Amino acid sequence: MARRGSYAKGVARREEILESALDVIGRKGYQNASLKEIAEVVGVTPAALLHYFGSKEELFTEVLRKRDEHDGLDPSALNADDARGAFLDVIRHNTEVPGLVALFSRLAVDAADPAHPAHPYFLDRSARLRESIADNFGGEQQPSALDPDTLARVIQAVSDGLQLQWMIDPMVDMPGIMAALIDALLPPTAPGS
Hints:
Elements: H1 2-28, H2 35-42, H3 46-53, H4 56-71, H5 83-94, H6 98-110, H7 119-136, H8 148-168, H9 174-185
């Protein structure tokens, strides 16, 4: 019985670390968030953080998973009625957490190496996002000149690229540009059309 309690405490501590890291990175930025500071917020040592996650890269990968959970980026939860709005809401929210956008962008580049701990996360996340877009953005009611997979890849590529442009120039209107692109690729239909 003690083992189960110990396990539950470990899971709770891991969640606490992720929530604290999410907060610190969101507030201070990826480059200004140290393991030491995250550990201090939780009340553990940096070595204890690595006990729960193995490496800084694994911790940051799990922070992105936690961010996705908070943002509701679960493609299975989206449907055609709210997929566009939910996608644009996440982009709007990203403008409020530049540190997490920087973390995502930097880890995405590092994850191009198949040996990087974030590689499987980005492969899975990208596939789920494209599947959600392909399943929920088009359809018979809103035909597109692009096949669903190509449409999904274009929307994902533009979204990721806009994040880079926005990090360089915060005046870039990520949600506005994304909404305009989606409308151009999938023009809204009038009710009853």
